[in-house]
Amino acid sequence: METKDKPIELRGSVWMMVGGENFGGPGRVALLARIAECGSITQAAKAIKMSYKAAWDAIDSMNNLAGEPLVERLTGGKGGGGTRLTRRGAQLVANFRIIEREHRRFVDQLSQQAQAEGIADDFLLIRKMNMKTSARNQFLGKVTHVKQGAVNDEIELEIGAGQKIVAIVTQESTRGLGLCCGAEAFALIKASSIILVTEDADAKFSARNCMSGTVSRLQPGAVNTEVVIELSGGGAIAAIITNESCNTLGLAVGVKASAIFKASSVILGVPA
After folding, report:
1. Alpha-carbon distance 16 to 14, whole Å?
2. What's the CA gap between 142 and 163, in Å, rounded?
3. Measured between alpha carbons, how far is residue 21 from residues 11, 29, 89, 254 in Å?
């Protein structure tokens, strides 16, 4: 079957952490929800294809991390007792469903933008929401200008301290995301899409975006180096360049440098 022309869709799951420990995700919440429905650990575990031991291990772990019981045993009665969620456990299930629904809307919105702009491969970055570079290169701001074109629109986003980011998106994305002056939006830029230059570089670039600051950290690798620039207006931006380029530019902590990137390399999103 031919699949190369089929669109790439984004998917993702929400996980909860407590003090760096894995509290749980959809699987554990599904277990709690089934316990509420069945009133039985055995039946709940069978319903989600989990062993009885694994179910109790998960419950014990959640109870410990929550600092209070989420599930409690019932003794006596006609059926010989059972299991039920505590008020806190029921509240956790309800709140997780709300968070999961909002997360789904967020991912769907990004997926639609990716397909509309033909940059679905770049959105693999966003699927990995815990990637360091995607987290650092996220800037929240407000739309200050929208310049309409025949096919694409130019969106100007003010991110504070007088700094602005310009992005190119399709008109369909502009309408779908509700991008208009005053609207809140965020910009995502891949670290590998950024070109670094030092202040003594006597050159001009066609790229619309230039953010200047001081190198605050270098993380060399076998081939590439991750360079983090602390921006003069606040915040930071990360770039991935070759080790050779890093040496040629003389990049070191304290050196002034600028991050340059094209407007077409910027991914825009809006809060749901």
Report:
1. 7
2. 11
3. 23, 16, 18, 36
Which sequence spans correspond to the domains of the chain? 7-130, 131-269
CA 196-198-202 angle, 5° bins:
110
Q: Which residue has the tokens 């309408």?
A: 175
What is the SS3 assignment for 17?
Answer: strand
Strand-pair partners of 217: 228
CB count, 10 Å around CB of 158? 15
Residues 56-78 have a mean pLDDT of 77
Over residues 189-223, the pLDDT tens digits come to 888 899 999 875 566 677 789 998 999 889 899 99
Here the tokens at position 20 are 């760096």
Backbone angles phi, psi at 252, to 5 degrees: -155, 160
- Fold classification of 7-130 is Arc Repressor Mutant, subunit A (1.10.10)
Partnered with residue 264 across adjacent β-strands are: none
Q: Which residue has the tokens 């570079």?
A: 133
Exposure letters 77-100 (e unless 16+ CB within 10 A, then b): eeeeebbebeeebbebbeebeeee
User: What is the per-residue pLDDT for 128?
Assistant: 38
* The CATH classification of domain 131-269, taken from the options 3.40.640.10, 3.40.50.1820, 3.40.50.2300, 2.40.50.100: 2.40.50.100
What's the average model confidence in pLDDT over 46-61?
Answer: 86
